[in-house]
DNA sequence: GTCCAAAAGTCTGGAACCAGACCAATGAGG
DNA sequence: CCTCATTGGTCTGGTTCCAGACTTTTGGAC
């Protein structure tokens, strides 16, 4: 095997020579909007930004955006009204989750993709918590953290997921690294569909609440190691649950 | 402003409604290939994969890939030869670094960008090492790790950076999470320009070698905590050096 | 010297996507 | 009731990008 020098070999080339484009602009857009709806970024009854504005934000043409909106309209997620004060309104309530949905959702995703997403999330969220705990926090930062923590604890069941997301993302954003925050958001997105299929039960909430409190406490106490461990423990729980549903 | 309900507010919508396409396929491809060359994924004298294969990996058409290759050829990075045993060969050597270059490079980058990149790198590389140390390693994985470690230690000065990158990326890729590997590669890319501007001196190499050895040992011993700490210590060194050059 | 496989180079038709101009509907406010 | 700003709906021409078939060059193997 003379051949050309292979450099780092497979190592590195896998990461660097990965696909440049995620794929089809239309499908990608549908997926994004669907995530925004299911995550509650745009709540029930809420309105998407005007087409021209949204198209600019997403970096696509209005035509492509409209196709995506049309698809979601046909699928019953959106109600589009024209005229002033019109727009694309969210007409979708997340169904109350059942364990059967979860099993289906987990198996829809490939096993390797699930493992990838869980590993990635574990790494970046632990990293964010550790960084944040190691930083000198301002009063405003401390307040934001406790406020979002309170938000989860006081959330109505229908709002629980949204508040939970807000707490996790707050840690990421407070870390002060936009790159790290984006990575955490991305990681969360990849498991959102699955987490949404987990019923929100009182014991789970209480369990999670204790872990959330531990995370916040460790961060506020400035103990990076404890913060990292607390996040790891928290995420390990849901990760194990999801893994358990693999065929 | 009555308006529509805003959901998670800025949090989340920033991440969700970000651009779907990174931009122009051609430019994106040029950038990628350039990174691969500068990172040493394809070393001096080495050959890029055949066009058809590479196009498939990058998820673009051969036409677009060829345009990118042509641009790099014109810019003097590649030498393209046809016929069997032909291909696109790397004709580029990173210039020998001087401290003046480093100062300039650091200040070219914004302070916040530098801080962001360093934080991000710290988080994801620590995460990767921790994950890898916590996994049950196959013999092949162990061998890959020790082989890349030996690679750094035996590297000629001109080749040191490449081998160093190979070692760091090997840890990321062995973690088994493509997402995490991509994040580590991305993080490394953001500081490559700076690291390349640091002269490779014997004391630095010996210091780094000891830290590399500690990292590998912790991973092979299956001690996630030690692995994480070893990586943190290793990265903290260069991070402090770079921070010292801020205006 | 001839053959052949592997690689770059070329061409074509079509699909996806875009930018921008223009049309149509809607409902609050005068 | 009328006006008008705002929003979705439509159309047109052009650019980018793609999939695949085909051609040419090259150098090792026989």
UniProtKB/TrEMBL annotation, chains A, B:
Molecular function in Gene Ontology: DNA binding; DNA-binding transcription factor activity
Any Pfam family the entry gives: GntR
Signal sequence annotation: none
Keywords for the protein's UniProt record, in alphabetical order: DNA-binding, Transcription, Transcription regulation
Domain HTH gntR-type positions: 23-93
Top-level taxonomic group: Bacteria
UniProt entry tagged with the keyword Transcription: yes
InterPro entries linked: GntR_C, TF_FadR/GntR_C, Tscrpt_reg_HTH_GntR, WH-like_DNA-bd_sf, WH_DNA-bd_sf
UniProt cross-references to Gene3D superfamilies, sorted A to Z: GntR ligand-binding domain-like, Winged helix-like DNA-binding domain superfamily/Winged helix DNA-binding domain
Keyword Transmembrane helix: no
Protein name as annotated: FadR family transcriptional regulator
Taxonomic source organism: Microbispora oryzae
């Amino acid at each position: 095997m003379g051949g050309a020098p292979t450099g780092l070999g497979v190592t590195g080339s896998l990461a660097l020579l990965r696909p440049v484009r995620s794929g089809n602009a239309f499908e990608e857009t549908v997926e994004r909007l669907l995530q925004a709806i299911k995550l509650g970024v745009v709540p029930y009854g809420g309105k998407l930004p005007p087409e021209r504005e949204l198209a600019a934000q997403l970096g696509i043409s209005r035509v492509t955006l409209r196709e995506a909106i049309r698809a979601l309209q046909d699928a019953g997620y959106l109600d589009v009204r024209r005229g002033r004060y019109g727009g694309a309104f969210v007409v979708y309530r997340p169904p109350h989750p059942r364990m059967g949905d979860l099993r289906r959702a987990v198996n829809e995703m490939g096993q390797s993709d699930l493992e990838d997403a869980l590993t990635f999330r574990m790494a970046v969220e632990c990293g964010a918590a550790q960084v944040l705990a190691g930083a000198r926090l301002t009063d405003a930062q401390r307040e934001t953290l406790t406020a979002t923590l309170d938000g989860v604890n006081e959330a109505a069941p229908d709002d629980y997921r949204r508040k939970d997301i807000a707490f996790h993302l707050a840690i990421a954003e407070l870390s002060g690294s936009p790159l790290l925050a984006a990575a955490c958001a991305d990681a969360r997105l990849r498991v959102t569909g699955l987490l949404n299929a987990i019923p929100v039960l009182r014991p789970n909430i209480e369990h999670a609440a204790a872990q959330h409190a531990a995370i916040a406490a460790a961060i506020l106490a400035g103990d990076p190691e404890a913060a990292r461990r607390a996040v790891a423990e928290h995420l390990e729980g849901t990760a194990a649950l999801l893994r358990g549903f693999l065929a």
